[in-house]
Amino acid sequence: MSGLRSVAAEVFGCRACPRLVEWRERVAQDKVARFADHAYWGRPVPGFGDPAARILILGLAPAAHGGNRTGRIFTGDRSGDFLYGSLHRCGLASRPTSVSRDDGLRLHGTYLSAVNRCAPPGNRPTPQERDRCLPFLEREIEALEALRAIVALGAFAWDGALRALASLGHGARPKPRFGHAAEVSVGQYVLIGAFHPSQQNTFTGKLTPPMLDAVVERAITLAT
Fold it and tell me: Is 55 helix (H, G, I), strand (E, B) or coil?
């Protein structure tokens, strides 16, 4: 647990990427109308979950008006509701929605994180911004001593997971290709792909609740 707290403390104070610092703080100041009365977090967002997790679920970055507003990953937006709904159905979350850092939600055997810790413009971090942030993910993976399965939500998270694992000495060659339900062993871990629960995917039916549930259930099986 102390390792995760150390990472979180460094995440909170990070200002390594000027473009992301400017964006996250501007979004927090120039609020959208529906959240005009909310106090935005406006800082980097650390990981969240069970320090004894055997499953890590990895996203791209906090959403501008989700994690960047609430201060917790996948919290306060539609993507988070879709994800937490699946985790709740599969027995990994205490409730099916996540609205704030103090809403009482608890994760069981699961930890949530992201490749980048600041909300990026257009949800597109640069390669340099990705690389500056990856050491946080590497340290989280090391601190999660019981970790066995990593679920990458989207191709960016899949690539970030592979890069972090390679830095930790767990390379995979040739580079495995991302796909929904794609699965590859990387060192002591199994990496599983899933389409990101963005509205672009969930509203079009590219990702359905049964599809995400199947990936989560597979991760549970592999991590047991």
Answer: strand
Bridge partners (DSSP) of residue 191 are: 150, 184
Give how many domains the chain has, as a whole number.
1
Residues 6+ apart with CB under 8 A from 93: 84, 87, 105, 106, 107, 108, 110
For 51, 116, 128, 167, 213, the CA distances from 27, given in Å and listed in that order, are 31, 17, 21, 33, 32
Helices (H), 103-173: 127-143, 155-167
Q: Which residue range(s) make up the domain with 161?
A: 2-223
Q: Is 192 helix (H, G, I), strand (E, B) or coil?
A: strand
Is-contact 27 40, C-beta < 8 A? yes
**Count of CB atoms within 10 A of residue 30's CB?**
8
Residues 156 and 183: beta-carbon distance below 8 Å: no
What CATH number is associated with residue 97?
A: 3.40.470.10
What is the spatial distance between Cα 77 and Cα 164, in angstroms, rounded to a whole number? 27
Beta bridge partners of 55: 110, 149
Contacts of residue 7, Cβ cutoff 8 Å, sequence gap at least 6: 46, 47, 136, 139, 140, 143
Q: Are 173 and 196 in contact (CB under 8 A)?
A: no
For 8-41, write each residue's pLDDT tens digit: 999 999 999 999 999 999 999 999 999 999 999 9
**Model pTM above 0.85:** yes
Q: Is 34 left (phi over 0), alpha (psi -120 to 50) or beta?
A: alpha
